[in-house]
Design a protein that fits this description.
The protein is of the alpha+beta class. The protein has 2 helices and 4 strands.
């Protein structure tokens, strides 16, 4: 079973946006919790991250990465770093590779 928890929603307003050019972008950061079976068939919790990018309320990009950390606290701390730095779905794999070597 997978559960998603919205951690943060931010709105990005690029400096070059004017009324004629369009609307701001929205990024949503989710903590994803799921059941994972270990080798001994014992069910463990696993944690991942999902980032969704929206433009005019429509999803334009999204990414879900599972097995980021085995603890909720570490995953929440990582998500905080991601939204503080406005990480987008496209850049998430590169950022995770730099931060934790995923």
């Amino acid at each position: 079973m997978i559960s998603k928890f919205l951690e943060k929603r931010i709105e990005l307003i690029p400096q070059e946006i004017t009324e004629d050019l369009g609307n701001p972008l929205e990024l949503e950061y989710y903590l994803v919790e799921y059941d994972s079976k270990e080798e001994c068939n014992e069910i463990q919790k696993g944690y991942g991250i999902e980032i969704i990018k929206k433009n005019n309320g429509k999803v334009t990009e999204s990414i879900l990465i599972r097995n980021v950390y085995a603890t909720r606290e570490k995953s929440e701390s990582l998500i905080k770093k991601l939204f503080v730095n406005s990480v987008t779905p496209v850049s998430l794999p590169y950022v995770l590779d730099d931060l934790i070597g995923v």
